[in-house]
Design brief:
Layout: H1 2-5, E1 29-33, H2 37-48, E2 52-56, H3 62-66, E3 70-72, H4 75-81, E4 84-87
Length: about 100
């Protein structure tokens, strides 16, 4: 993820970061679905690599999200705007199909 965002070392077999789908034009966006302990830890790490962090969690306030540098947005907006998405939710009947394949393209 960091290599593709242009914030990490380029693998030796890649001619350029753009061959990895690089995002050098502007600051990349990382999305976190879930802002529990693991989601918050991920948000802090994404911010350390100068990514904007979008988060979706219906149980967290914007005030709490701001403490880790994240901005709460609706799930469809997170999926549309994020260059990278990580999921940190329990698998339940409500979360099992919350991300549709079409939103990953």
């Amino acid at each position: 993820m960091l290599c593709a965002a242009g914030n990490g070392p380029t693998p030796p077999n890649a001619g350029s970061v753009h061959e990895l789908g690089g995002y050098r034009a502007g600051e990349p966006y990382g999305g976190s679905v879930g802002l529990g302990a693991i989601g918050k830890a991920m948000a802090v790490r994404l911010r350390a690599f100068e990514m904007q962090v979008l988060a979706y969690d219906p149980f967290v306030t914007q005030e709490d999200a701001s403490k880790v540098g994240a901005t709460l947005v609706p799930l469809n907006e997170l999926m549309r705007r994020s260059d990278f998405v990580s999921m940190h939710v329990h698998v339940t009947s409500d979360t099992r199909a919350m991300i549709e394949l079409s939103s990953l393209r």
